[in-house]
Amino acid sequence: MVDSGITHDHEILAKLRSGSGVEEAVKAIYCNHYKKLTGYILQNNGNKQDAEDIFQEVVLAFIELVKLNKFREESSIYTFLFSINRHTWLNELKRRGRALYREEKYEEGIEKVESDVGQFMEERDKRVRIASLVDGLGGKCRQILLAFYFEKKSIKEILYETGYDNEQVVRNKKYLCLKQLEQKLNENPTLKQILKGLLYG
Asked: What would the pLDDT profile of 3-49 be if each residue is shown by its tens digit?
């Protein structure tokens, strides 16, 4: 920007207060203070666009304060502008920090849900594949194995449901059913590992 020719604070203030020299006053503020004010933003996690945006906000705020006679000339224009500049930028960083925190928490929530759903679907798929093999063992074996390993029922509960003579008979039957299932699984090592995980994991 072309040098405004105005260097003193009282000249800038006079232009702003008169209302007829605002453009010249803004040029003077730009020439005298732009580099230092934007430099603060750039040195404190801001980029060029941030620096320019904040500078514009600061200048507009300053002009408004001068028109409202809120600037009492107790400090230099630069000191006053720097204070507004710093305050505005720190507030912006806080706002961004809160927004980033909310976004990160949201993303964490999404990842957790996706992970939980993915794990559930994977486990469900494994169980379906094992259950399909169990189905091929016959009625009683299917009933006992699904009740014990998948429904987590006790031997006593299974005894009541199956109608066997005693708990030892249920245990023996469960063992025989597992041996039959093992034979089927020996043909499929992957499913065998899955079963071990489901039974003993």
From this structure: 556 668 888 888 888 877 888 888 889 998 999 999 999 998 889 99
3-state DSSP helix/strand/coil % of the chain, to nearest 5: 80, 0, 20
CATH of domain 136-200: 1.10.10
Question: How far is Cα of residue 74 from the mean position of the Cα atoms in its chain?
Answer: 46
pTM score, two decimals? 0.48
Contact 40, 87 (CB under 8 A): no
Q: Where in the chain is the domain with CATH 1.10.10?
A: 136-200
What radius of gyration, in Å, describes the C-alpha atoms of the chain?
A: 38
CA distances from 190 to 133, 145, 156, 195 (A): 13, 19, 32, 9
Alpha-carbon span 98 to 106, nearest angstrom: 12
Tokens of 84: 């507004």
**In a 3-state reduction of DSSP, which class is residue 5?**
coil
What H or E segment, with its residue span, contains residue 201? none
The arrangement of secondary structure in 9-100, i.e. its CATH architecture, is: Orthogonal Bundle (1.10)
Q: What is the dihedral of CA 30, 36, 38, 40, to 10 degrees?
A: -160
Q: What amino acid is encoded at 25 in this protein?
A: A
CA 153, CA 99: separation in Å to the nearest integer? 49
